[in-house]
Every structure is written in C-alpha cells, then in structure tokens.
Design goal:
- Helices cover 47% and strands 12% of the residues.
- Helix 1 (23-34) crosses helix 2.
- Helix 9 links the parallel strand 6 and strand 7 (224-228).
- The longest helix is centred in the middle third of the chain and has 25 residues, at 102-126.
- The strands form two sheets. Strands 5-4-1-6-7-8 form a six-stranded parallel sheet, sandwiched between helices. A two-stranded antiparallel ribbon has the order 2-3.
- The protein has two domains: 4-21 and 130-254, 3-Layer(aba) Sandwich (Rossmann fold); 23-126, no CATH class.
- The chain is globular.
- By secondary structure, the chain is an alpha/beta fold.
- It has helices at 23-34, 48-57, 66-75, 80-98, 102-126, 134-142, 155-164, 183-191, 208-215, 235-242, and strands at 9-13, 20-21, 129-130, 147-150, 174-175, 200-205, 224-228, 247-250.
- It has ten helices and eight strands.
Length: 258
C-alpha cells in the first residue's frame, strides 16, 4: 500500500464560476449573439438593468448557448422565480419557437465572442475577473501537481484568458466545449490513464447538478467532489450540498487545500 505522502493528487477544475467570473462578458456576448436572432436588440451593449438581472440569474446556466436564452427571458420581463424554476423548459420553448437548434445558438455565441476578441481583445479580457486568492492557489498547485480544466467554454477562449495571466498549463490539460464530451466522461478517461491509476482525484465544480451526475456514476466512486461556494452557486445549492456526505463545500480560502 502506498504511503499517504507518496499518493499523487490530480485536480480537475471547472473554469467559469470557480476560477473566473465571466458573467459580465457572457451577458454582453449573449446580447450581441441574440441580435442575430432578434433584430430589435440594438447596439453592442445590453441595457444595464438586463445585465444586472443576468448576473443574478447566472447560476441557472449550464452551458454557453443558454446565456442567449436567459437574456431573451429577461428581455421578455419574465420574473426571476419562474426563470429559476422553469429554465430548461423555457429554453426549449424559445428554441422551438425560433425554429433553430441549440447548436445554431452556440455558433452565434462563438462568432460574437470571436468578433469581439478580434476587434478589441483588451476590452474582452477586461470584462472578466479572476476570483481573489483562487487564481493564486490554482497557479501554485499547477506548478507541482497535474491540474486539468473541465469547462463548457471553448478551449481557445480559456487559453486566451489564462495566457493573459501568464499561467503555465499545457493545452492538453484543457477540456472544453470542443471535445463534445460530458465532464463525467472526461473524468472517467483521465482517471483510467495508467499514470493516474493510483492517484487521488479531486473534482471542483460550481454546479451542484454536475457533481450529482458524477456521484451517480459508479465508475467515478473514487473521485472526491467539491462544490465551489463562491462564484455561481446559490444558498440553496450550498445547503443541499452540505447534506450530501460525499460533497465538500469549499470557500475561496480552502480551495485546493489538500
């Protein structure tokens, strides 16, 4: 049996809502992408009141294209409670009524973001912020242990952001939307690599539903699960997570403290 001191730790970490607060950028990109679907959305910036509500409701979003649909619901003056309760169903209804697919909306988001970066990358970068202390802990851990980013954002956008902070992370350690794979599948693949078979795996995520999907897969029973309690979590999420023995709720001060 390995001595505790010799066991390797491997970290798989979500990006948005764990390392980076991108809500302002996401809301603005959603507005610009949505302008291709609804021409009455005028100008490059959403109304300030829309963006304020978008920030508050950001926890309902699981993947990028849904930002456009959230902005649509805000534009339609739907109340917060209904959005939080019925978000998935409302998204499906918008897609059906507009006669497009989620892939169509995702392409519009990608194009709007690419156009913004090409036009003014400094402005785009400036719409993001990294959580105080969290980025330092991530950078320090990545110097000594295998660290992977698992995200629903496109890999090239994550790379642009971490390069702006001079973080050294191999390209092969970023798994984004481009893979077309779930985080559960990626964790399965990583944990089965020969180099990591004896390792202790840690997965840090800000969406409780994602952690619960991982917990429900028997092949991932060995993965240690953490809910990032800063970012895009809600009080209800944190309360639920604390009632699940397998999930540890981390605050920014305890992030990666293992």
């Amino acid at each position: 049996m390995q001595n505790r001191q010799t066991i390797q730790n491997v970290f798989a970490i979500d990006f948005d809502g764990v390392l980076c607060d991108s809500a302002g950028e996401a809301g603005t990109t959603a507005w610009r992408a949505g302008g291709r679907l609804w021409p009455d959305w005028q100008g490059p910036e959403p109304p300030a009141a829309y963006l304020g509500r978008f920030r508050k409701l950001r926890p309902v979003i699981e993947t990028g294209y849904q930002a456009v649909l959230l902005m649509r619901l805000i534009h339609d003056s739907m109340d917060d409670e209904t959005i939080e309760r019925e978000f998935s169903e409302r998204c499906a209804r918008i897609i059906e009524e507009r006669g497009c697919s989620s892939d169509d909306v995702a392409r519009l988001v990608s194009q709007a973001r690419s156009d913004w970066i090409d036009r003014d990358v400094d402005d785009w970068l400036g719409r993001h912020s990294f959580y105080p202390g969290v980025l330092d802990a991530f950078t320090a851990k990545a110097e000594h242990d295998p660290v992977f980013i698992l995200t629903t954002k496109e890999e090239r956008f994550v790379r642009t952001l971490i390069d702006s902070r001079a973080i050294r992370l191999p390209g092969s350690h970023i798994f984004g939307l481009d893979t077309g794979r779930s985080k559960e599948d990626i964790l399965d693949e990583l944990s089965q690599r020969p180099a990591f078979r004896e390792a202790r795996f840690h997965f840090v995520e800000d969406r409780l539903q994602t952690l619960m999907r991982v917990a429900s897969r028997s092949s991932l029973d060995h993965i240690l699960l953490y809910l990032a309690g800063w970012g895009y979590t809600t009080d209800h999420d944190r309360e639920q997570a604390r009632a699940i023995p397998r999930i540890t709720v981390w605050n920014a001060a305890s992030f990666l403290d293992v």
